[in-house]
Every structure is written in C-alpha cells, then in structure tokens.
Amino acid sequence: MNSTQYSMDRRDIQFVQKEFLRVEQLTQLPQFKDFSPQDFDLTVEEGATFVEQVWAPINKIGDEQGTVLKDGKVMSPKGFKEAWKKCTEAGWLGITAEPEFGGQGLPLSVAVGVLEGFYGGNPALYVTTMLTAGAAGLITSFGSAEQKAKFCEKMITGRWGGTMCLSEPNAGSAVGDIATSAVKAKSGGHYLLKGSKCWISGGDHDFTDNIVHLVLARAQGAPSGPKGISLFIVPKFRLNAKGEPAEPNDVTTVRLEHKLGIKASPTCVLEFGAQDDCHGYLLEGENLGMTQMFKLMNEARFTVSYQGLGAASGAYRNALAFAQERVQGIPIQHGKDRAAKRTPIVEHPDVRNMLLTMKALTEGIRGLIYSLAFYTDMARHGPEETRQRYQDLVEILTPIAKNAGADQGFEVTRLGIQVLGGVGFTEEFPLAQAMRDAKIASIYEGTTGIQALDLVTRKLTMRKGELFGALLKEIGDLRPELAKGEGTRAAIHEWQDAVGKLKLTVHSLKQLGEELGPREAVLHATDVCVFFGDVMSSYYLLKMALLAETKLEPLVNGHKNARAAALQSPEARFYFNKVKTAEHYVFEILPRGRAVVAKVQSRSFAALDAVLEA
Ligand SMILES: Cc1cc2nc3c(=O)[nH]c(=O)nc-3n(C[C@H](O)[C@H](O)[C@H](O)COP(=O)(O)OP(=O)(O)OC[C@H]3O[C@@H](n4cnc5c(N)ncnc54)[C@H](O)[C@@H]3O)c2cc1C
Q1: Which of 231, 277, 296, 588 has its CA 20 to 30 A from that of 172?
Q2: Would you state the pLDDT for residue 441?
C-alpha cells in the first residue's frame, strides 16, 4: 500500500465475502455447483493482481492523453488496446456471463471482489468493458437463437465491443422522449434506423474490429412515450455470410466529448443513418425496448455503485499511506513545546477523523454493495421459495446502492485530497484524477435525483409498501444484546433510533403526498435516499462489528486490552478497527439523518416557492 499507486483491499474484500457473506455457500446451488470455494478465492486473488499490475498502471496515461478522433476513427491512449486484449483473453469481461457464450459464469457476489478494482483502478477503460458485457447480456436474455449465435460469444470474449445507445440531445433523463426512428425495410427483415445519439460510451474505439450498438428507437406507427420504444442491434459493420464484419453500416462518429474525468473513455455523438442505410435488427419484438432496457439499467446502476466503491477504496489507501509518511507539526497535547518531536499527520485528530470517515464510508458501501450482489445471486439462482424475498431486497436497494456508491465514492476522494493537503490538489498524486473520474457515477445510468425519485415514488409505494416492509424485516435481526462491547451496544441503540426516524420520514412523505401533492412529497427525495444509504451502510458495518468482536476475543488473550492486541498483531488490528469503524459511522455520519427528518417535517417549501428566474 502506498500513496501513489492503486491497490486493492484484499483483506477487507476477503472478510466481507468469506467471513461475513460466506459466499462459499453458493457452491451448493445448482447454478454454481461446478465451482469450489478455492475457485472463488483464486479468482479474486488473480483479479486483484491483474488490476494492480496491468489495469491500474495505465490509468494516469489515459487521463493525460485522453481519446482522439482522427479521420473519423477514435484512437485510444497508449497501452489501452493491449490492456483490453489481456483483460478479455483472461476472461474478465465475461466474469459473470453464461459459459455457453464464453463467460466464466461466476456469482456476482464473487465477481464484485474483482470488479470494484477494475472500476476503481481504471474507470475510463472499464466503462467500455462493462457496457460490452451489459449489451451482450441483453442479447443473451432477449435475442433470438440466431442473434445469440452471431453476437454473444464475440462480445463476451471481447472480440467485439458493445454499447448502449439511449440518450439523445432532447432525451436524457426522460428516455421516453427519444426521436430516433426505425422503419421496417421492404425486404431483408431488418429496419432502417435514423437519428442522433449522444454521450455514447465506447461509441467508437480501436480495441476491436466491430462494435455492436444496442439502440433505442421508435418503430413506425408506435405509440408515443416509453410504451412505443423498441431495441435494435446495430453493428458498426454488417456481417458477411461467415458472420465476420464486412461493409460499414452507416454509423458515423460525429464528435468526442471533452470531459471533466474518465477522459480515456470515448464518449461519442453517433449519427445513425445519415445515408439512410443503417440496418438495425429488432430484439424480441416491437415496443418492448423499455422493459428490456430496464433489465440492463438495473444491472448497470448496480455496476456504477461499485465505481464509487473502487474509487473510495483506492483513495483511502493512498491517503492512509500518505498520512503515515508526511511529517508536519507537533501533537496538540505537547502544547507550544517547539522542541517536541514532529509528528506524522496521521496523529492529528482532524486527520484521524477524516481517515476514519473515509474508511467508514468505504467499508459501509462495500457491505451494502456486496450484500446486494449476494441478494441478486439468491434472487436469480437460490431456492425457489426464497427468490421473491431476495428480489424485493434487490428492487429497493438498487437505487439506494447506486446513490450511496456514487456519492460516498466522490466524497471519499474529496476527503482524500484534503488529507494530502497541497499535493492532493496536484496531478502528481492520484487523488485529483480519482475525484474527477468519480464524479460521473452520480450522473450516468440515471442521475442521483432520478434514483431518489425511483426510491420514493416507486419502490416505497410498490405493492402498498411491501418492499420497505421486506427491508425492515431483513434488518430487524440487529439487536443491542448481541454486542459484546459497550461501544457496539451503544451504537446499535443509536442505529435503532435512526431506523425509527427513517420510518417516521417515510410516513411523513406519504402524508405530504396525500395532503399537499407530489411536488412537496419528492422535494427531499435525494436526502431521503442518502438517509436510507446511511442506515443500510451502518447496518452492515454493525453486523460485521458483531462478527469482528467474536473473532477478536481470542486474539486479545495475553494482552492488556483489545487496543494493545491491535498494536501488536495485524489480524487483531483488522478486527479491532472494524468495530471502531462501525462505531464511527453510527456516531459521526448517521446523525445527518436527523436533519432529513427535520427537513421533511419542517414543511418549509421555499425551494418550490422561490421565483427562480435569471
Ligand atoms: C461521460 C458520460 C457517459 C455517458 N454514457 C452514456 C451511454 O453510454 N449511453 C447513453 O445512452 N447515455 C450515456 N450518458 C448519458 C447519461 O445517461 C445522461 O447524461 C443522464 O441520464 C442525464 O441526462 P442529461 O445529461 O440529459 O441531463 P438531464 O436529464 O437534462 O438532467 C439535468 C438535471 O435535471 C435533473 N432532472 C431531470 N429530470 C428530472 C426529473 N424528472 N425530476 C427531478 N430531476 C430531474 C437531473 O437529475 C439533473 O440534475 C453518458 C453521460 C456522460 C456524461
């Protein structure tokens, strides 16, 4: 671990996956019966090594060089093409994909132990990788046998790239307003697409000899709005009889966006059908596009949550290493004694507070995200009778995890810069790029505001509040009497109080909606979503603290106390700090939820009343 290189937190990942979630139990399910627990361990270890040795070292070059559009073609930064090749050859792109199409078929809750590093170590490169896997997943789910045979394996093994083309200049958050049209060709069974798509990640690049765009468009005569949208497979090059790329398919890269971060990710404006000759192949049937896309968007929202996690984890490790090395000032307890020994900044209370906040936010979202991955595995492949329960948890936790991952990831990188001081603000250290790169997570795959709306207007009201009920039931197992230590017991009491306030908040939102209307009810949706994220992150941290207390007990034998043991042994230190991290989250971060209840109950609607005119 050092202050300039990306490294993965192997110990914490291992703790969450193996000790807390016990992912080895998934090998009992028919879907994963061919794996052994050792296979899982090996995957995570090899993935971390790949991230640290191949993927992350070119992250800075990507930021410096960015992508370039030359003669209509996109050129990637030095080393990116080679890294893509190594990644796809090693099977990382298809880590959870169907083995039938060249994927590894691993559980999501195992894969996430690798993927947080792929996203954190080189987010710009991972965006194209992730979207290719996502696009292939859509064809796997909804394509005809012929479409699957033509596209899936080539995409999952990384021979061809993939994109998701939703956004248009006048249709961003409001995807239902897209105008790209699709007219059925007189012969050939295909459609002719026409329209402009913007912000398309991986819209063009030099990694592969074809790119398969999945394009939302409106078929002729379709109803307006979301119900009239269909999804089309549009390869950059049409395929010849052998299934290989042949003539160009009238897809033009018009422009590359110049961005705040993820500069090496080619974000393209694409023109489909400028020559009226862009062939698209309908996926499944007309007007099913939004339903199909929701499948991908749910997965992509989850993926973006661990972009934040990967960024946060790297930033915390860089900042901690720096704070141990950087000597500055005199410890405050030495007063004005100029002769006192200068101290590493890690000893200053304010720096310690920032570092423990970084650690708590990072490990809180890790607990939330890995648990959500586990629920996803169980909802898809677990015993039939428990699938609905897990699916309910997946539904309600997806917008919460997306926002928590994105926002806390950004916050941790921001704090990291603060810990480093002046050098944190320079490009000599990785934190500045990490913060710029992390910002996008709160914008794409649905902005923070859109996720919050999804939570408040859909997930909390769905099936008369049953999803919220399922969540409360899930977290109802955390009780103070389970704690061994006073600190943890007090923290669980405090957390239970926060859960009570969260219930009150949800009730107040309902009342606002009924008495005053939807604008008043959603005014604080984003804050409410943050409150949910904090309650859930601290729930997982406290559950992990209970486990850590048990593991710590035998390690304290022969020492004065737990802290003395932690100073001596790395294992004792790990568990001791787990307990302190949970306590810190509950008493330092969770209290911001009280402000949310107060805001919602204040019935102050200044933001709705103000005349916001320039
Ligand atoms: C780097 C990058 C990569 C991207 N990659 C892709 C891609 O691969 N494929 C793709 O299709 N798109 C992609 N996008 C587009 C991205 O999904 C959109 O930018 C995003 O959905 C927001 O749309 P918008 O930019 O039009 O903002 P707008 O929708 O105009 O939103 C602007 C602001 O208004 C708020 N807002 C909008 N509507 C509402 C509402 N109803 N209620 C409350 N608040 C609202 C938003 O939260 C936001 O704060 C990418 C964008 C970027 C920047």
Answers
A1: 277
A2: 98
Contact in structure between 157 and 93 (CB atoms under 8 Å): yes
CA torsion 379→385→389→394, rounded to 10°?
A: 10
CB 325 within 8 Å of CB 3: yes
CA-to-CA distance for 157 and 146, rounded, in angstroms? 18
The two structure tokens encoding residue 499: 């859960």
Whose Cα sits closest to atom 48 in ligand 1? 447
Q: For residue 411, how many other CB atoms are within 10 A of its CB?
A: 19
Q: In a 3-state reduction of DSSP, which class is residue 263?
A: coil
- Where are the chain's structural domains? 10-156, 161-288, 478-605
Q: Is 116 a catalytic residue?
A: no
Separation of CA 194 and ligand 1 centre (Å)? 22
State the catalytic residue, choosing from 116, 153, 286, 445.
Answer: 445
Cα 318 to Cα 328: distance, rounded to the nearest angstrom: 18
CATH class of this structure's domain 10-156? mainly alpha
In this prediction, residue 294 carries a pLDDT of 82
171 lines ligand 1 (CB under 6 A): no
Q: Which helix (H) or strand (E) holds 509?
A: helix 486-515
DSSP string, 451-475: HHHIIIIIITTGGGGHHHHHHHHHH
Identify the bridge partners of residue 196 per DSSP, sorted by sequence position: 271
Q: Cβ of 45: how many Cβ atoms within 10 Å?
A: 16
Give the nearest ligand 1 atom to 173 CA.
Answer: 29
Architecture per CATH, 161-288 = Beta Barrel (2.40)
Using CA atoms, how far apart are residues 556 and 324, in angstroms rounded to an integer?
25
Tell me if 10-156 shares its fold with 161-288.
no
Q: How far apart are CA 168 and CA 165, in angstroms?
A: 8
243: left (phi > 0), else alpha (psi -120 to 50), else beta?
left
Q: Rounded to two decimals, what is the model's pTM?
A: 0.97
Give the closest residue (by CA) to ligand 1 atom 7: 200
Q: Which residues of the chain have pLDDT under 50?
A: none
Q: What is the pLDDT of residues 194-232, one digit of tens each?
A: 999 999 999 999 999 999 999 999 999 999 999 999 999
